[in-house]
Amino acid sequence: MQTTPVKKTPLSAAQIRQLLDDCLEVEFSFLRTDTAVTILAGLERAEQDYILTWVQRVASTNIQLAYQFITRAVNALDNMDRRMIESWALYAMDTYDQAGLHKALAIIRNLDDFVRLYHQKTAGAVYEENASVLLHFARGLSGRRLQLQESSLTYTDSETIYLPAVVSLLDTPQENFLVYKAMVAYHWAQARFGTFHLQLGSILDEQPEAENFLSLFHALDTVRLDAILQRELPGLARHMRRIKQQLQQTPSASFLQLANELVRPRSTVDDVLRLTRRYLHKLDPPSPCFYQGVLQPQEVEECRQQRLQKEKRQFRSVLRKLVEELKGLDIDEQKHHRFETRPKHRHYEMPDELELTLDGQAVPLPDNVKGLITSIVQDLGEIPAEYLQPAGAGEYQPDIFGEKNPDPDDVWKGTYHEKGAFLYKEWDFRRQHYRKNWCAVREKEIQPVYDTFIGKTLNKYQGLIKHLRKTFEAMRDEDRMLKRQVQGDDVDIDALVEALADAHDGREMSDRLFTRMHRSERNIAVIFMVDMSGSTKGWINEAERESLLLLAEALETLGDRYAIYGFSGMARKRCEIYRIKEFAQAYNEEVKARINGITPQDYTRMGFAIRHLCHILNQVDARTRILITLSDGKPDDYDNYRGEYGIEDTRRALIEARRDGIHPYCITIDKEAREYLPHMYGAAAYTVIDDVRQLPLKVADIYRRLTT
Amino acid sequence: MPARILKPEEYYIKTEPYYQAIGDEIAVFESAYRKKLPVLLKGPTGCGKTRFMEHMAWRLGKPLITVSCHDDLTASDLVGRFLINGGETVWVDGPLARAVRAGGICYLDEIVEARKDTMVVIHPLADDRRVLPMEKVGELLQAPDDFCLTISYNPGYQSVLKDLKQSTRQRFVALEFDYPAEDVETDIIVKETGISHELAAKLIKFAHMTRNLKGNGLEEGASTRLLVHAAKLISDDVTPITACHSAIAQALTDDAEMLAAIDELSSSLF
Ligand SMILES: Nc1ncnc2c1ncn2[C@@H]1O[C@H](COP(=O)(O)OP(=O)(O)O)[C@@H](O)[C@H]1O
Ligand SMILES: [Mg+2]
What we know:
The structure holds two protein chains of two kinds.
Chain A: H1 13-23, H2 26-29, H3 34-41, H4 45-61, H5 63-76, H6 82-99, H7 101-109, H8 111-123, E1 125-126, H9 127-140, E2 147-150, E3 155-156, E4 160-163, E5 166-167, H10 173-192, H11 200-205, H12 210-232, H13 234-246, H14 253-258, H15 269-279, H16 297-327, E6 339-345, E7 353-358, E8 361-362, H17 367-380, H18 408-413, E9 422-428, E10 433-445, H19 453-460, H20 462-474, E11 479-485, E12 490-491, H21 493-504, E13 514-519, E14 524-531, H22 539-558, E15 561-569, E16 575-581, H23 589-596, H24 607-618, E17 624-631, H25 644-659, E18 662-668, H26 673-681, E19 686-688, H27 695-706
Parallel strand pairs in A: 2-4, 10-16, 14-15, 14-17, 17-18, 18-19
Antiparallel strand pairs in A: 1-5, 3-4, 6-7, 7-8, 9-10, 11-13, 12-13, 15-16
Helix pairs in contact in A: 1-3, 3-5, 4-5, 5-7, 6-7, 9-10, 10-12, 10-13, 12-13, 12-15, 16-17, 20-22, 20-27, 22-27, 24-25, 25-26
Chain B: H1 25-34, E1 39-42, H2 49-60, E2 64-68, H3 75-79, E3 80-85, E4 88-93, H4 95-102, E5 105-109, H5 118-126, E6 131-134, E7 139-142, E8 148-153, H6 166-169, E9 173-176, H7 182-193, H8 197-212, H9 224-235, H10 240-252, H11 256-269
Parallel strand pairs in B: 1-8, 1-9, 2-5, 5-8
Antiparallel strand pairs in B: 3-4, 6-7
Helix pairs in contact in B: 7-8, 7-9, 8-9, 8-11, 9-10, 10-11
């Protein structure tokens, strides 16, 4: 029998109307879909299905947005292919997430703008896609560690290089990437080779025609920096010249003639300033070239002032720490010691690389201190004498490089902002796409609680703990003696006797005559992710705390590396991870008290917690990485995380985890869990415990089974 | 050159291995040797520790016995073991025992990689007893004055497991190795490979770029060894960008974006 693919019959106008009415909630919204229905009815079924699916996805985000989408889409079908429609819808939804309905509607309405942008993006280079390569590139260049950020203006404030979202100046993505690269290198050179040694802001203040002055200065400085780039990065400089010619941005010969002295290796920004003064009004600057961006003297100055203060403080704190470490001295005695710097390597165009000495002896420095010295010298050309005084008692900052993270609680007392948070994506199953930077995640401390609970628990389970210790001890990395090996540390006497007997009888002698020690290495790292949602109040919370104590006691004998974190949340902007025991932390009274301090909080948003803890797990060097969740129910949160959305996001997060080589496992006491856990964790990766009181007994046992 | 078979303790180095001294390490080593003190070489991989040992062995006219330690290396691998020959058990010395008997220089490379039980045999050799316990034959081997124990260790690996214990490190005279200054490293590359000074200088610059990325996505920057590899390819007419990619970038990372960035850095230079 022959089968031909059945072409599905198109949907009728009535059917389409019904579908649209449903997903746009026309009954309440009174949106008019007549035109859309008419046009859609004339399409083939595949086409209809495709458009309707996307309307549904957009409608899951916002109905108005979906309405506008269908209204425009049906008219634009001839000019747009599927990929373009998709990215149009996604772009609008992302915009909705980030900037609200108004901005998102604008994207849908200004289809022409989008089409232009789309073409730009396909032939152009997009910041987001190239950011991490560019960042590595920038950090490979010498000097201060730079940041990159997207912005409508191209410039640097001396710490961050701001770059456009899309570059579509040239014909191909490769060529446009080179434009980005040139921008990064040029602005790196500005910061690295002294453009900001001048207080350009105050110089401009004295200028009646500040704007002309600035553009001439900028053009002349570009001549100087181009020459430096030619010497430092000749391969890139070649491309920059070529593209400049292609875009006809090469300055006139007469301009280059007058600026010629800036090409010399020893010329500085002071020479640029001198020439600017000399030629102001006499010389028209060439129009800006494609990579030079703009100068923002004010921002540079603010950034620099802040940095100078911060780094001076940090540097003097470092010295104090060094004195204490190196000499083991009391605080008052340090006055007799002298810090100095001396050049380690000489450079022409950059400040010399310095080495720090204490009483004439070179001091070995950790990398972050080297970076600090580089940054200071980049600003000041040296380490000034007043920096070389170790910080006094009152000025000392023990946590020198810890960028002071705002206390998460404080952040939320004020108005909402996302400073100091990790941002994670979240899967929206209706949209069939991630929502970017959707969850703001913060790590918080748990207050240790010192009371009788710990003692009582350890007492109550004394017997069990002893049993667990013994079982876990047996699982430890143990050298096992392998017998009858071809090679080994010792002679296997039994085998030898047999072999000799064989030889005696004229049989062939075995060559497996040795014993060898074989080490089976566990090399496991595990994180326990503990549900701290409000629903755990009471019994469950107590069972969780007991289980964790027992587990920790057992794990201590086993030697696996483990960490414990709690999680809870209240809507996406307030996702919280509670540190109970970090990997590097030893299990001690304080950790016990923090386990005891676990208290029920808000809701059960799970995706962010899995993503964040996997991020932590990924940084641990272990052969096997495991994430074990202790929970009492399905994912649930205050916003629309309830139901399918939360389950699907959690499932996604677990798929991501497995893709990273992490083994997720779930222990739950929710009796209904069998309905959703197999879908989320897979059939073999969870256990449902029917009686809460069984939890402490079971958890350690499950861990044992899981890891042997 | 056909392969030759040598017993390790007969491995005398006859011609001077090229070694460019960075500081006073040669003098310190000689002095430690005279005073019969064991030596610890600290420093990242590929910065000249092995070459230094070859040079010192030549200088002192002693055989050099090198053992590269790995995570399966046991005390028996160092000291020796029984083998069976025609129904008889015979004792066979391990490299460390041979070095002690011959009065040679024993270099245990990357000692922290070895199993913990190796320390048990090293410690008595490394203090003023200078004996090697040979438990299985029930003997103590007293080291002659010529014998010298040197171990190496890379403090860059931040893992607690791979840290050298105080009880071990406090027995040794420590020499710190690091990548040489630019001009010195350039000289080394030129002398080792014969490429032009200009190209060598660019390679060094490239190396510094990768070293800037240490802790920013790379575990380690390019070592002198990798530069020598790249330079050898270049001297055989591989283009510098390809040489940097194959001999350096690929050796440093598998991360696609990092590889792309490193390629961007080298193509900016050459
Ligand atoms: N100071 C030096 N003098 C001469 N060659 C050196 C020096 N430092 C490094 N090299 C070169 O680098 C290569 C790798 O050095 P090696 O001694 O094997 O490193 P390590 O033992 O520290 O890992 C050597 O083969 C040699 O070519
Ligand atoms: Mg080596």
